[in-house]
Each structure stands twice: as C-alpha cells, then as structure tokens.
Design goal:
heterodimer; A: alpha+beta; 4-stranded antiparallel beta sheet; 3-stranded antiparallel beta sheet; 17 helices; 13% strand; B: alpha/beta; two-stranded parallel ribbon; 4 helices; 9 strands
Chain lengths: 412, 176
C-alpha cells in the first residue's frame, strides 16, 4: 500500500484516532471543595460533558428538622455552610421570626449586621484563599487564613465557638456582645483595611492568576438567572440584585439607614461602583479590570467577592456606631418549645455564597411539620455542567472554584 | 397585596386551572391544577410586569398524620403539596405556587404521584425536581433525566415522606 507523502507534519496529528475517556474527579480531589465528585467525559484535554454527583455529605438535615423544635435546629444550620455559619443561623432565625411575627429590638438588628457581615468577610477570605489553592498558588491561602483567624477569635469571644456558632437564634442572639468587644472589632477593621491591598496584589492583579481565570467560564446574565445562580456568581455576570437591597422587608429593614454599594458591574459600561475605600487618608481605587476579562467570567466572580469585603467593612463600621448609640435589649431567644402557628413562611437572605432560603411549615406544635433549606451553592453548582462543556481539563478547577461551593450546604 | 392584578389576570387566562388563592397567608399563594402548571409557569415567567424569572425552590410537603390520635383531629385528608417559590429579579416580586397531588398515584401504594416538570421553563428546576423526587417520591413528567441526586441510586424509599422507615440494612451497614 503506497502511502502519500505528508508535506505538513501537523497533518499527522489529525490522523491520530483518540477515544473518549471517562475521568472520575473527586470526591477526594482537593480542588472539589470537599466531597464533590465530577465525572468528566473528555477527548484528550477537551471536556465534552461534566456530570456532578452529590450526596456524599448528606446528613438528612430536613428530616431531622421535622423532629426538633425551631431553636433546637439551629446547630444543624451551622453545619450547612460551615464557612459562614453565622449567616445560616440568621436565615433560619429570620424565617421563624417571620412565622411567629416577632419583631427584633433595634439593638439586636445592629448586632446582627455586625455579626453577619463579619461572617461574610471570614467566608470570602476562605473563598479567596482556596481559589488561589485551586490554581496552584499557596500563599493567598495563608494570608486569607491569617485574617480569618482574627475574626474567629472575635467570634469565639462572642459565643465560645470558632466554626459552628449557634449564636444568632430566633428572637435575637444567645447573648449580647461582651463589653469591650466593639473596640477589638474596630481594631481588627483598622488592621484589616491595610491588608486588603496586599490581598489584591496576591491574586487580583497577578498575571498568572489573570490568565488562568480571565475569559474562562463566561456565564451570561440570562444563563445565571435561568440556573438560579445567586450572590457573587449572579452579580459577577452583571445582574444588579442583592437581597440586602431587594429582599423582603423583614430582612432589608436590618440594613435601613446603612450606606453601602451593591458590587456589580454595569452591563453597559462594564464599570464597577466607584471605590470608597480609604487607605491612610487617601482614596484608593480598586485594582483595574484586566483587558482579557469578560463580564461573567471566573475573574469577575472573584473580583466581586474581593470588593464585597470592602463593603462589609464599611457596613460593620456603621453598625458598631449604631449599636453603641442604641441602648436597651438586644433580643432574647424565643422559648425552646415555642409553639409555631399552623402557617407557613419562606424567606431568603443574602448569605456570602448567595441567597439562602428557609421554608417552614408549622402545625400549631412546637416541632415544625416541614422544614426546607434552599441552598445557594446547590443552585450555583447546577450551572457547572453547561459551563464546562468544551473547555480544557485544567480549567475545571478554575470554574468550580470560582463558583465557591460548600458541599455541606449542597448536601445538607 | 401587590399580587391582586396578577391573580385576576391568571383567573382570566386559565379559568378553572386556578383552584384557590390565599392572599391572607404570610406569603400569598396560588393553587393551580397540575394540568396547567407548565402553561401557568411559562406565563408567569414571560408576562410583562411580573416576570418571575427565578425559581427559588421546589418543596414537597407530605400531609400524612401517622399518629392515629392526632390524625382524627386534623382537618385535611392525606395528600401532598408541591410548593414552588418564585421570585423576579426584574420586578422584585415574589409568589408561591402550589399543586396538590395524592400521596400515591390512583391510591396504589408504590406508584409515584405525577406532576408535570417545569425544568423546561426554569433550568434550575432540573435539580430541584431531582431532589424532590429523591427525597419525597414525586414523579416529574417530562423531566430530562429524573434520578436520585442526594441519596445513592439504589436507595429504597423516600425519606421525607411521613411514613418512611429507615431500611434495616444497606450494603451490610445497619440502618436501625
């Protein structure tokens, strides 16, 4: 058989037959953030299909909720998004308060703003650190955890726990902030504000990081809404929606009188809100958007989180002042066997990872008839499959990491 | 009360398909007939002025009192409710849709009750319906690949049903 002469050596490559391969990624893979298992169908380096398998951390939280009273279920909410347990406590507390029509005293509302925004910073620091880790950079993880430790120390002083707090409860909080705590918190903020530019230099403007994330995993606003993405994932696609502004009144009234920005690029101009961040008395602009970045890509999702941290700092500063200016009760926890009326209530709050919703159906008993947790990470993760089609294998950690999922919340 | 124009429009458009409306509830809800669920959802998603573009959650609530003493007191027959929490990013409205279904199809135990799938309307409903199927045992007709999502594929029973009993053993692991 005569073989024809090949002029172009590259042609050989197209003549090589390759087979499709099924690759199992996880559940122990470090970049799957816990116990997520992805089954990839790939042809060489190109992934044609991704199927997430969940449930490795399923602990029947909803079933357990049908056997416990509202306050007893608080520790189970801690274990959902364990990186932002305070925000989970808040979501459940608010929905119970909505069901029993309880109004929190003003001091308690400011306390909750301080605590939940501190939780948001702590959570975004992990998100930043582990994202660096996913992309092969170890340093940001240590820097992020150094700051997170300081927040955890403050939380420990408030409630005695460092990870699963059970601090905010229906009715308020288990205790008031200890005396002198707000000064320590202020001290932390002053110190933390100096670190923020440092964190930005580590990743945001790092050229390796930019080339790994910019233009990768681009998600249109329409797709983000259709798949139920919320939080920084949704705002990273240029959708102006933050429940702290647009949520239910019971939740937004917590933020009444506070000044802060929703971090989201204008889809027309691609510009983020003006920086209001001060560094040693000078106004410091946010790092510039690299020209490779496209609205809705991994880099933008990361950037939104980084800028949200600054807004949280602003919110805490205001909240401490308001908290100190109000006196009186911070809100006592409801009774352990508080009866729940035969009604139902659903409510969502803006947790660090997106909109965390709780649904509770009462039947006149103290044990709810049905509880349900709508997880933000669950919906954010559902977008992986369409987002990962036709990309390179090495980009999968970049995309999954940019969604910042916590498996405890997905599997519940 | 902002939902009143919505309700009158729904009634006008779907007539008998809208079974019940409760505007006094903490979250106002509309109960629809399963046969028009997909049409109602499509309409709610696209209707000017409402645009419920986000399906926040799908929950199945099992109404079955297993305690015979308490069962005599309740004012409902055993049934299941599929609850859809919708919201809109464009208009910031929220709405709850409900569909009432029997606990078993044709009251034959083991035959899953059916509800049309809305995964074609909101892509996010895909996973929510899989979860509802997995934990509560509702068959969503027209779902692209209805299978268990949180429990293993070979798990038996539907844990969030009120009469569920933990299996005695699963692959050699003691259950209870």
């Amino acid at each position: 058989m005569a073989t024809s002469k090949i002029d172009d050596p590259r042609v050989i490559e197209f003549d090589v037959r390759t087979d499709e391969m099924l690759i199992n990624m996880g559940p122990q893979h470090p970049s799957t953030h816990g116990v997520l298992r992805l089954v990839l169908r790939s042809d060489g380096e190109v992934v044609s299909d991704v199927e997430p398998h969940l449930g490795y951390l399923h602990r029947c939280a909803e079933k357990i909720g049908e056997n416990l009273t509202a306050r007893q279920w608080i520790p189970y909410t801690d274990r959902m998004d364990y990186l932002a347990a305070m925000n989970m406590n808040l979501g459940w507390s608010l929905v119970i308060e909505k069901l029993i029509e309880y109004d929190l005293p003003e001091r308690g509302r400011h306390l909750r703003v301080i605590i939940s925004e501190m939780g948001r910073i702590a959570s975004h620091l992990v998100a930043m650190g582990t994202y660096g880790l996913d992309l092969g950079s170890f340093t940001p993880f240590l820097y992020g955890f150094r700051e997170r430790e300081r927040i955890l120390n403050l939380f420990e002083e408030v409630c005695g726990a460092r990870l699963t707090y059970s601090y905010l409860t229906p009715g308020g909080a288990t205790a008031d902030l200890p005396s002198g705590w707000t000064d320590k918190c202020r001290e932390f903020l002053t110190q933390f504000k100096e670190v923020i530019p440092e964190l930005h230099t580590l990743l945001t403007t790092n050229s390796i990081f930019v080339s790994r994330t910019a233009g990768i995993g681009v998600m249109s606003a329409r797709m983000a809404i259709d798949y139920g993405c919320t939080g920084p994932v949704l705002r990273g696609s240029g959708v102006y929606h933050d429940l702290r502004f647009h949520g239910e009144e019971r939740y937004t009234e917590m933020y009444d009188g506070y000044v802060f920005d929703v971090i989201c690029a204008d889809p027309e101009t691609g510009k983020y809100p003006e920086s209001n961040y001060e560094f040693h008395g000078d106004k410091l602009d946010y790092p510039e958007i690299p020209r490779q970045a496209i609205l809705g890509d991994c880099w933008h999702r990361f950037y939104v989180r980084m800028l949200e941290v600054v807004q949280s700092v602003r919110l805490i500063e205001q909240a401490i002042e308001k908290y100190e200016a109000t006196s009186g009760d911070w809100g006592k926890p409801i009774k352990l066997i508080q009866k729940l009326p035969a009604k139902e209530a659903y409510m969502e709050t803006e947790a660090p990872r997106g909109q965390m919703g709780f649904y509770v159906v009462g039947n006149g008993d103290s044990i709810p008839w049905r509880v349900r947790a709508r997880s933000s990470s669950f919906c954010n993760l559902s977008v992986t499959a369409p987002l990962c089609q036709g990309i390179l294998l090495a980009d999968i950690p970049a995309i999954v990491g940019s969604l910042d999922v916590v498996m405890g919340e997905i599997d519940r | 009360m902002s939902e009143i124009p919505l309700v009158s429009e729904l009634r006008e458009k779907f007539g008998e398909g809208i079974i019940d409306v409760n505007l006094e509830a903490i979250d106002e809800w509309v109960e629809v007939n399963p046969s028009v669920l997909v049409e109602v959802s499509q309409y709610l998603k696209e209707a000017e002025g409402f645009r419920f573009d986000m399906c926040n959650s799908i929950t199945v609530v099992d109404y079955l009192e297993t305690d015979p003493k308490k069962a005599a007191k309740v004012d409902w027959e055993p049934h299941m409710e599929v609850v859809y929490h919708l919201s809109s990013i464009a208009t910031k409205l929220t709405l709850v849709l409900k569909v009432k279904i029997p606990r078993w199809k044709n009251d034959v135990e083991g035959e899953l009750p059916t509800v049309p799938s809305v995964a074609g309307v909101w892509a996010t409903a895909d996973w929510h319906e899989r979860e509802a199927f997995d934990l509560s045992g509702v068959n969503f007709l027209g779902h692209p690949h209805l299978k268990r999502i949180l429990c293993p594929d070979d798990w038996e029973g539907y844990p969030l049903r009120k009469d569920y009993e933990m299996p005695l053993e699963y692959h050699g692991i003691r259950g209870r």
